[in-house]
Amino acid sequence: MASTGPDPTGSAAFVQRPVLRPRTSYAGLHNTDPFVFDGPFLYSNCRQRGIMKHLDFGSVLIFGSKDGSAFVLDTVFVVGKRKDYLARDAVAQLVSIAPSSFIHATAQPIQAQARAGGRGCIPNRNTYVLYEGATPEEPAYEMFSFVPAIDVPDAFPRPSISLASLNPRSTQSIKILLKGSAIQVRALWESLVKQVTGAGLLLGTHFET
After folding, report:
1. Which residue, among 164, 141, 148, 124, has the nearest Cα to 203 in the 3D structure?
2. Tell me, what DSSP letter sits at residue 53?
3. Can you tell me the distance from the alpha carbon of 4 to that of 30, in angstroms, rounded to the nearest whole number?
4. CA triple 165-167-168, angle to 5 deg
5. What pTM value is reported for the model?
6. What is the rounded distance in angstroms from the CA atom of residue 72 to the CA atom of residue 54?
7. What digits encode the pLDDT tens for the residues 121-171?
8. What is the 8-class DSSP label of residue 57?
């Protein structure tokens, strides 16, 4: 990612744009998760412990961060397909099913960190799950993944949303609703859709690098 300067809306420190270029080494790089470019959204590793490795079809994940007392939305991810993979062999195991941009931005750094004995999100011998997000063309219970967007290439503030009983505690939160009925999960997703569109934004579902 390349910084393009301060966000003119004042809601973030910088605006980022993706820059894809060949590298001789991926050691020490952060991976990009979730990855929303060049096809269905992909969620591959961040905080994948316990139940996060066993998400059901149609589970809803909410990626965002706290801005003061508000929660601002980055991505709504609805689980579609899944594939287990070994972090230290991420490239070979994912290259046939993920776009090349994902391999460069996410799989290569994951593999490099795992082979170097990295800690944190990428322990040395950990198995992770590559989740593919549901799309409008292949929805999960009529739900699909999206990010807040506008139809012109310009900066805009992320929408502040209400999560009711889901109270984010960290500044970079992943929220998930698994408990309850499919009707409750669908109601949460519809609430997010209404809040995003009510802020004058679109539901972005496909982005090219």
Report:
1. 148
2. G
3. 19
4. 150
5. 0.85
6. 26
7. 665 558 899 999 999 999 999 999 999 999 877 778 889 988 765 655 555
8. T
